[in-house]
Amino acid sequence: MHSFLVSLRSEFYKSRKTLAFWGAILLPVAIISLITFGFYAKSGKFTQSEGIVIWGQYVDGVLGVMGVLLMPMFVIFVAYSVNNIEHRADMWKSIFSLPLNRWGIYAGKFGFAVLLIALCLFLFAALLLAGGNILGVMKPDELKFHQYNFAAEAFLLHTKLFLSGMGILAIQFLLSLIWTDFIKPMGIGFLSTVAGIIAANVNWEYDYLIPYAHPLLALQSMKPSESGTVDVNVFSQEVVVGLIVAAVAFVLGYIIVARRSVK
């Protein structure tokens, strides 16, 4: 546990000025701000929409931008960035010479990548709720956000989206350990994401077996219930498969780290 905590803290200090770290913060701020401004500018179009309906339209606007392509690509970029610091400066030998076990070092690096993605999606959920409620206060007669409390659904939705990205993260983390350059892991990740989106959109029978399709499948599986609310089954089929893939890829990544030469 000591090695894990030291490694996790070290990753924070090394990465706090990187694009991956600030992207986890600025990406939700930028997207939510743009969608919120769009709803404010076009508020007259939503006059007839009830509370749950307008929340659904608002969320669709955010997830339509973020959930399909940006979410997988951000996960791919984070996985690469965490290991890129060591690749770029040839620091693996220095890290392994520290009085820390390799399991703690590896788990700390992977854990930091998980925290960055969790931070990004938490901010998406929090800012989405803040943006909707602010719009409801500014234009209560047109934008009836105040008619429905969407907090529970928002955090469940983003929790499911977070879990659906774990398979992608673990695979890309593994690839970034195998290859030191940028092109191979990012290229494989991008092509796999496109293939996953196509498979999900054409409703291929086995699309749930493609981790890169899981974020889109997770969004597609969330349907309105009979009561008019959003039914969020967090541990749906694609999420469970993604977590299994993540566990296998995580172990394979540790095997690579454990056998890596420090000479």
Question: What are the main properties of this structure?
Answer:
two-stranded antiparallel sheet; 10 helices; elongated; 2% strand; single chain; mainly alpha
Can you offer a commentary on this structure?
The protein has helices at 2-15, 19-41, 51-89, 92-96, 102-138, 151-164, 166-178, 183-201, 214-220, 237-259, and strands at residues 223-224, 230-231. It has ten helices and two strands. It is 74% helix and 2% strand. Strand 1 and strand 2 (230-231) form a beta hairpin. It has a two-stranded antiparallel sheet with strand order 1-2. It is mainly α and 263 residues long. Helix 3 packs antiparallel against helix 5 and helix 7 runs parallel beside helix 10 (237-259). It has one domain (2-259).
Question: Outline of this structure?
Answer:
With 263 residues, this protein is mainly alpha-helical.
Q: How much of the polypeptide forms β-strand, as a percent range? A: under 5%
Number of strands: 2
- The total of helices stands at 10
Low-confidence stretches: none
Q: What's the oligomerization state?
A: single chain
- Output the radius of gyration: 20 Å
**Whole-Å distance between the termini?**
26 Å
Order of helices and strands: HHHHHHHHHEEH
Strand order of the largest sheet: 1-2
Class computed from helices, strands and strand pairing:
mainly alpha
Q: Describe the biggest sheet?
A: 2 strands, antiparallel
Q: How does the overall form come out from the CA principal axes?
A: elongated
**How many separate domains make up the residues?**
1
Mean pLDDT: 85
| Helix share bin | over 70%
